[in-house]
Structure formats: C-alpha cells, structure tokens
Amino acid sequence: MSIMQISSPISSSSSVFLGQRTINSRRSKSSITGRNFGICKCIATPPEKTAYTTKVSRNANMAKLQAGYLFPEIARRRSAHMLKYPDAQVISLGIGDTTEPIPEVITSAMAMRANELTTLEGYSGYGAEQGEKKLRAAIASTYYRDLGIEENDIFVSDGAKCDISRLQLLFGSNVKMAVQDPSYPAYVDSSVIVGQTGLFQKDVEKFGNIEYMKCTPANGFFPDLSTVSPTDIIFFCSPNNPTGSTATKNQLTQLVQFARDNGSIIVYDSAYAMYISDDSPRSIFEIPGAKEVAIETSSFSKYAGFTGVRLGWTVVPKELLFADGFPIAKDFNRIVCTCFNGASNIAQAGGLACLSSEGLKAMGDVISFYKENTAIIVDTFTSLGFNVYGGSNAPYVWVHFPGQSSWDVFAEILEKTHVVTTPGSGFGPAGEGFIRVSAFGHRSNVLEACKRLKQLYK
Hints:
Blueprint: H1 60-64, H2 70-84, E1 91-92, H3 104-116, H4 133-143, E2 154-157, H5 160-171, E3 177-181, H6 185-194, E4 200-201, E5 206-207, E6 210-214, E7 233-237, H7 249-262, E8 265-269, E9 294-299, H8 301-304, E10 312-315, H9 328-339, H10 345-354, H11 357-383, E11 388-390, E12 396-400, H12 406-417, E13 419-420, E14 422-423, E15 434-438, H13 443-457
Parallel strand pairs: 1-13, 3-6, 3-7, 7-8, 8-9
Antiparallel strand pairs: 2-10, 4-5, 9-10, 11-12, 12-15, 14-15
C-alpha cells in the first residue's frame, strides 16, 4: 500500500463550533500508513473584544420605559417611509409643531435685543433664574388679572415640557400620580424616570402605581372622579392634548374640590388656553380655592410659534403648601436655581413683545389660522362618516377608528396617502382605536392631505 498525504477541506457544516466560518485547511505535512483519514485542522480564533464598561449601574427606572418616546418614534417611521418613497410628498399632521412664521412684531423685538448684546450698554449675562421682572409682571397682568396671581408667583422657563420634569424632580419618587388617559406622554414618562411608578403591565398597557383617569366619548372626556383613587399629584391638561376636549367650569370645580378633599396637588397644563373660544376657563385659577391646590404651566410655543425659541412659564401660588406648611414655591425656586440659569434674554424680549397689544393681536391671527385648518380637517373626517372629537378649542382632531389598532391606522394612512398622523395609543391605553390629527401645517398641505384622505376613505 502506498503512503498517501490526505487533506480534506472542511465546510461550515462540518463542525458546529466553527459556526458559519468556512476554512480551507492546508495540506498536511505529516503522513500515516493505512486507512485514509480526513484531517481536521482546528484554528484558534482570537477572542472577541468586549466593550469597556464602567462600574456604574443603569438607572433601573429608565429600563421601565417602553420603546422610544412617542414623537421621536413617529419621526423615525416617517424617515423610513421617505427612504422607501423618495419621490413622495410626505405631509406631517402628526407632531404638534407649529409651521407658520413668528409675527414680525415679535421677531423684531428679539432682533433688537440681540443687537443690544453687541454694545457695552446693552449687554447682559446671567439673568434672574425666575425670569425678568417685566415679563413676569406682563404674564400676571395679561393671563391672571383679577385671579390673585402676582408676578412673584410666576417662574419663566424654557418651556412647559421642561417645567414638567422640574416639577417631577420637586415632588420626588415617593408620590403617586394620576393622569388623564389619554394624555401628553411627558407626564407618564417623567413619572417613570423619577421613580414614582412600578413596572409596565403589558396586559393592561399601564405602569404600576399610576392612576389612569379614563377619558372617553362616553364620559365627555372628563374622568368620573367617583371612581378615581386618591393620589398625591394630578396631571390635567385643558384644552387636552391629544383629544382636543376642554373642561367646563363645573368640571374644573369638581376637580379642585376632589383635590382639596384628598389633599392632592393639581398640575394644570394650559398650553392651549388661547385656542378657547367659548366660556370654558382658560386658567385653573378661575376656580375658587384652586390657589391652595394647583400649579399651572403654560407656554408661548403654540401661541407665537416659539416651539424652537423655547419660552414658557409656571405659576406656583404662595398659598400652595406642603403637608408640613412649607411653601411649595420656595422649593420650586430652589429647583429652578439649581437646575436652570434662566430663559434666554433674547427669547424673553420676544415674550414681552407677545404680550403687547400688537403682539396679542398678531398671536390671535396665527391661532385663527390654525383653527381654520382644524375646521377643514374636522369637515373632512366628518364627511367621510367618522366620529370626530376636539377641534373647537384646540388645534387637535381626535378621530375614532373602532376595532382597529391605532398604529395600524397610522401605518395605513402613511403608506397609502403619505400623510403622518399620531396613533392614539401612544397617549395611553384609552387612546387605542383613535388617531390624533394636528392642525399645525401650511394651508396648502392641509388641503392636499385632506384630499388624499378623502380618496383613501371615500
């Protein structure tokens, strides 16, 4: 028998531990006598590099959050859709971002203030963390006249959303909160992050230790307070985002009394108050007794197009006290001074211009424009036979698709019309089966979007 040198190539299926790698063996230099053998040459692979990690544990509360924050997730899906259909004209009626230019009377005031910063006489650095005195006084006299709110009760900020998180920091982790369901996602997410909640319960789509106050067409989008468990903090938005519903004076009187009976604090979000055109309250402080149980946060974002400029305010009345009698405003002031250096002086100049007689008229014109958009959207869905809510006192239209998944409706509309909306379930479990349509958009885009929706659902 001759002596043979045998070499057999090994496929990726020849050995489990080689995974999907295909290795060509070299010809063996050794020889053996007798039977033929396939020579398996095992090649050691270098160990995979592992990323360096610190010894700091992740905040466990962050791990409780579900998926991404709603609006960045919508933006991600919009971007993916645009990659899929690069030639499509995608129209966004989803995120509540303003689209119309800021009135010139306001921008000119900001430009003037910016130019003043180039001079020795006009330059200013850090301002008061609570806001410039003139602006605080103007907010008090414009929005809270005869309501017992003074300029020292007002904290000017970089927007209501930022103040929501600062308030959560103020309250800490040992409180229980209630929230309208559906509602603006920042209330719940900030509560989760600060550690007020339990884990997310997938079977009911809720976080533990949050009281979800169900708001549906059946109860006029105002919760049945007789079924709501007492909590420490109650987040309430009117006009509501996303449903567009507005609480009446009688309803808010019930809410204030409920808070007083239970020793709770209401955080009242009035970011859309200037859209109210009927006799509904624009401030919680129109309700007797509210100053002892309520904080109010608001913003110039949706009035003056300040979504990018960033300017808002929060009212913490001096009458509002902790259980031990300590003024809540003093602690909030400490939070503000610790976490914030005050709103931009340029933005505050714009805010002051907003509250001039000319500025108020200009903001009113912008709001009227968006409300006309809202009417067009309401008419479109109504003509198609849908049940439509909101739209009267808010720039949002809440459309019911019974028995359907909100995300499925969102996906169908985006795929077939190239129009971006917002799935209702992103605002809470009671939002399932609804979509929110925003009236923030150029008129031509709103008209085109409605034309496409009519073609889809005719």
